[in-house]
Write a structure and sequence with these properties.
Blueprint (H helix, E strand, L loop, with lengths): L1 H25 L6 H8 L3 H7 L3 H26 L5 H18 L10 H24 L1 H6 L9 H18 L5 H12 L5
Helix pairs in contact: 1-2, 1-4, 4-5, 4-6, 5-9, 6-8, 8-9
C-alpha cells in the first residue's frame, strides 16, 4: 500500500513539474491539457485521475511556487543574526530578489487574461502567507530587543511585501540600497 502511494505521489509531482516548465515556457493560457499530457507521457484519463481539470494542475503549480518562497523566508529567518538589523534587511532584499528570480511563471511582462487573474491571486496569497510568517517570527524576535514603532504591524508588512514585489518586478535594476532604505523607512528601523 505504501509503495502505491509513493508511486502516485511521484506521478503527481511529475505532472506538476512538467506543467510548471510548460507554463514558464509558453504561459498558462497557451498551455493545454494535451501539452501537459504529451510532456509527461500520460493519457488524459490518467492526468484526470490526479487532477480534475487544468485549474487544479495550475493551483498545484502555484502552491509549489508559494512553498518555495515560504521555504526561502524560513531559511532567511533561521540564518538571521539576532540583533543585526542592517544585516537582516540586506539579506532580506537578497532573498526577495532570489525568490522572484526563481519564479519565472509570470516573467513574460505584464500577465493578461487568465494569467493576470492567476498572478494577482498568487501574489495576494503569497503576500498574506509571508506577512503572517514574518509577523509571527521575525517581528516577535525584533520586539524582544527593540520597540516596535509601527501600528498595524501585519498590514504594514502586507503593504511592504506587496510593494517590494511590484517594484522589483517593474524595475529589476532598482538598487539594493533603495530597497533596504524603503524597508527601514516603512518599518521605522534604526540601521545604525
Amino acid at each position: 500500500m505504501g509503495t502505491d502511494r509513493m508511486c502516485e505521489d511521484l506521478r503527481r509531482e511529475q505532472i506538476v513539474s512538467h506543467a510548471m516548465r510548460l507554463y514558464e515556457e509558453q504561459g498558462i493560457e497557451a498551455t493545454s491539457v494535451r501539452d501537459i499530457m504529451r510532456s509527461v507521457g500520460v493519457s488524459r484519463s490518467l492526468l484526470y485521475h490526479y487532477f480534475p481539470d487544468k485549474e487544479a494542475v495550475t493551483e498545484a503549480v502555484l502552491d509549489r511556487y508559494l512553498q518555495e518562497f515560504v521555504d526561502r523566508v524560513h531559511a532567511w529567518d533561521d540564518a538571521r543574526e539576532p540583533g543585526d538589523v542592517r544585516g537582516s534587511v540586506r539579506t532580506c532584499v537578497a532573498m526577495i530578489r532570489s525568490s522572484l528570480g526563481r519564479m519565472r511563471l509570470f516573467d513574460d511582462g505584464s500577465p493578461s487574461g487568465d494569467d493576470a487573474t492567476l498572478y494577482l491571486a498568487f501574489t495576494r496569497h503569497a503576500v498574506e502567507t509571508l506577512s503572517r510568517l514574518i509577523v509571527s517570527t521575525t517581528v516577535v524576535d525584533y520586539a524582544r530587543v527593540h520597540e516596535i514603532e509601527i501600528e498595524h504591524v501585519y498590514e504594514t508588512f502586507y503593504m511592504l511585501i506587496s510593494g517590494l514585489i511590484a517594484l522589483v518586478r517593474m524595475d529589476p535594476g532598482v538598487a539594493d540600497e533603495t530597497l533596504e532604505g524603503l524597508i527601514a523607512q516603512t518599518l521605522h528601523l534604526d540601521l545604525g
